[in-house]
Design a protein that fits this description.
The chain is α+β, with helices and mostly antiparallel strands. It has helices spanning 43-50, 54-69, 76-100; strands at 13-16, 21-26, 29-34, 38-41, 106-107. It starts with 12 loop residues before the first strand and ends in a 6-residue tail after the last strand. The mean pLDDT is 84.
């Protein structure tokens, strides 16, 4: 299992959210999906949510996605375009999270560092 906001492994916090229809990128393709009624988050993302560090939360996800996704075969212009697309996607997804969050976080296990 991975964190729904940044992709880190082994999330330990669960948040209830209102189900919502949205578009996600999956293997380079846009897909319509209904978001589940819960989201699983890592300890870092959960802590940032609890102190309402929206900028830190966005930057964490953007850095993780760009670092893990940008290959040496991309030109500098393609890397810049990719980074902008990731930034816009992350900002939109996380903005939606703040709007559909429904209740307090619940600890579901694992190790808190």
């Amino acid at each position: 299992m991975i964190c729904d906001l940044c992709g880190a492994v082994d999330p330990i916090w669960k948040y209830r959210v209102q189900p919502v229809q949205g578009v996600v990128i999956n293997n380079g393709r846009l897909e319509n999906r209904t978001m589940p009624a819960t989201m699983m988050l890592c300890d870092d993302c959960s802590c940032m949510i609890e102190i309402e560090d929206r900028i830190g939360l966005q930057q964490k996800a953007i850095n993780r996605i760009v670092t893990e996704s940008v290959h040496d075969t991309l030109t500098p212009m393609n890397k810049q375009q990719f980074g902008l697309m990731v930034k816009q996607s992350v900002e939109g997804f996380q903005r939606m999270f703040w709007e559909i969050r429904d209740g307090e976080r619940v600890y579901v296990g694992g190790s808190k560092e």
